[in-house]
C-alpha cells in the first residue's frame, strides 16, 4: 500500500521560512502544530474555513481509496457522488444547544484519475469513518512481464 497524499483544507507548506526575513526557522512548523491542535480540539465547527474536512488518499495495485473521518455524522447524512472526474463527499451534522438545533453541512471534492472504473465505485461507513473504494481499470494495473530465455 502506498500513501499518495494527505489533503487538508487550507494546507500550508511545512517548509520553514529561511532567508533574510528574520523569522525563526521553526515558525512554519509551530504554525502547523497549532493548526493541528486547533482542528483536533474544535472538530467540525461551522465557519468559513471549517466547512471542509481532511481526506486521505492511498492506493494498492488494484484500488485507490479515499478515507474521510466524519465524527458525529449519521450514516444517512453522508452522500458520495462521482461526476465528471470528481468524487464529492457531502455530510451534515445536527447540533443541539439547549432548545436550539442547527445543522452544519460539509462538502469535499477530490479529483479522480482517469484510470478509475467509475461504475464500480463502492463506499462503506463505519464508526464515523467513510472509505470510498475506487477500482482501477485492468489496463492501469501493474502487470508482470515474463522474460523469455533464448
Question: If you had to describe this structure to a student in words, what would you say it looks like?
Answer:
By secondary structure, this protein is mainly beta. It has a domain of 103 residues: Immunoglobulin-like. The protein has 1 helix and 8 strands. The strands form 2 sheets. Strands 1-2-3-8-7 form a 5-stranded antiparallel β-sheet, with no helix packed on it. The protein has a 3-stranded antiparallel β-sheet with strand order 4-5-6, with no helix packed on it. The longest helix is centred in the N-terminal third of the chain and has 16 residues. It starts with a strand and ends in a 15-residue tail after the last strand.
Please give a handful of descriptors for the protein shown.
150 residues; 3-stranded antiparallel beta sheet; 8 strands; flat; mainly beta; Immunoglobulin-like
Which band does the percent of strand residues land in? 35-45%
Strand order of the largest sheet: 1-2-3-8-7
Using the CA coordinates, give the radius of gyration.
20 Å
Low-confidence stretches: 11-21, 42-50
Task: Report the top-level CATH class of the domain at 2-13 and 48-138.
Answer: Mainly Beta
What best-fitting shape do the alpha-carbon axes yield?
Answer: flat
Can you lay out the helices and strands and say which pair or pack?
Blueprint: E1 2-7, H1 27-42, E2 55-59, E3 63-69, E4 78-83, E5 86-97, E6 100-111, E7 122-126, E8 129-135
Antiparallel strand pairs: 1-2, 2-3, 3-8, 4-5, 5-6, 7-8
